[in-house]
Amino acid sequence: MKSIFAPLSMKIYSSLISRFFKFCLLPVAYAILLFTSSCETPEKVLKSNDLVYKKTKAIFWYNKKEYFKCIPIFEELIGLMKGRESTEDLYYMYSYANYKQGDYMISAYHFKNFYDLYPNSQYSEECLYMHAKSFQMLSPKPELDQTYTYKALESYELFLNMYSDSKYLKECNESVEKLRKKLEKKALNAADLYYRTSNYKAAATSYENILRDFPDINEGEKVTFMIVKARYKYAQNSIPSRKSERFNNVVKSFNTFKYKFSASKSLKEAEGYAAQSHFQSVQSAYEWAEISPAEDREKYFRVFFNELIAQQPLITDKKELDQLVRWNEKAYFLIVKNNFLISEDKKSKDKLPSLEQTVKTYYTFVDRFPNSRYMKEAERIFNNSTELIKKLKANG
After folding, report:
1. What single DSSP character describes residue 7?
2. 7 pLDDT exceeds 60?
3. CA distance linking residue 124 with residue 127, whole number of Å
4. Which residues contact 345 (CB under 8 A, 6 or more apart)?
5. CB 208 within 8 A of CB 173
6. CA–CA separation, 50 vs 211, rounded Å?
């Protein structure tokens, strides 16, 4: 009977040794290797004169996604190896390392520089695309300055001009769409802010610019309606001499809105602004003529008459129509009165033309309004004018 303490066979002995290394020594060796590797810092590698070693470590860290470690090594290698051997692959990884690290400003520069340095490289198309992508990553929220959004769009435009059939075509178009939507939102927010703060001129202009710059904007109906609304508010708050013109602009804007969005829920409200604008354009023309300088007053009353002729057929409210009739009558009388007042402010020898104009406009007034409430005063002015004309002509 064999003892249990008999020597182990050589085969069993080898198996035990193998297991010992596998389960005990190998983990220790691996830990030592990791410890040694972890002790290698970028600073330590940079001190080495071995370019192969540096290159190996930089690529090792790059593949491990430890970009903050490999970036300074790549930078030095690109400088040291320039003119001695190709740095194309290193520069490609360096550009990407900056991008992955989140340094998009730096990566944007280096991706474009790579494309310029190596236009025939297998990576040139990709790097020009990543140049635009880097700027897109810098594009902020719509509320902030959009300088980098514009840079990204310019870069994508450059890329698409160079590679119209690129494998990145779909991604480019999607990115351009997202960037333009951001600019749309920025512009719309700015226009809305102008309106909310009662800066109606800037609001109207901003809304118009939105339709010009983004003709396919989803909020086209809202923007076109807001042009009408902003222009109406702007006209209301304008100086008297410009009101009539600006109310006419409201009507033009409304016509555009009605043509494009005839089924809009905002159409009734827009019609209200247009209806008021028809009346207020005439009212404004009258009020400005009434307060304008005496020498220009008749000219501006003529403008009022033209505005009345243009707008009266479009006004349906009876009270407003009655008011137009009263203004028309008074305007013709005020022209007569104004010519006489001008004559009074002149020296004797210069009175005659104004007095003769007074008589001429009086006859026009009488023919149009024979039963006018201003008839007595108009006759008094006429009589005074004819007497003065006789005296002036008699005195030579």
Report:
1. P
2. no
3. 5
4. 294
5. no
6. 62
Distance CA 39, CA 189 (A): 53
Rg (CA), the chain: 43
- d(CA 241, CA 243) in angstroms, rounded, equals 6
C-alpha to C-alpha distance for 186 and 165, rounded to whole angstroms: 31
Closest CA to 245 of 328, 311, 325: 311
Closest by Cα among 127, 142, 59, 55 to 92? 127
Contact 309, 302 (CB under 8 A): no
Residue 360 sits at the vertex; the CA angle it makes with 354 and 362, to the nearest 5 degrees, is 100
CB 224 within 8 A of CB 254: no
What are the φ and ψ backbone dihedral angles of 374, each rounded to 5 degrees?
-95, 10
Indicate the residue type of 234: Y
Helix (H) or strand (E) holding 111: helix 104-117
Tell me the pLDDT tens digit for each residue of 218-274. 999 999 999 999 999 999 999 999 999 999 999 999 999 999 999 999 999 999 999
Task: Report residue 134 as tokens.
Answer: 């880097």
pLDDT digits (tens, 9 = 90+) for 11-65: 554 554 455 445 554 454 444 434 444 568 889 999 998 999 999 999 999 999 9
| Contact assessment for residue 308 and residue 328, using Cβ atoms and an 8 Å cutoff | yes
Domain residue ranges in the chain:
332-396
Task: Specify whether the CB–CB gap between 350 and 392 falls below 8 A.
Answer: no
Which residue's entry shows tokens 């983990």?
A: 27
| Inter-CA distances, 69 with 39, 47, 101, 323, Å | 12, 14, 10, 83
Q: How many residues would you count in the chain? A: 396
Q: Output the pTM of the full model.
A: 0.78
Q: Which of 275, 277, 268 is nearest to 238 (CA)?
A: 277
Phi-psi region of 116 (alpha: psi -120 to 50; beta: other; left: phi over 0): alpha
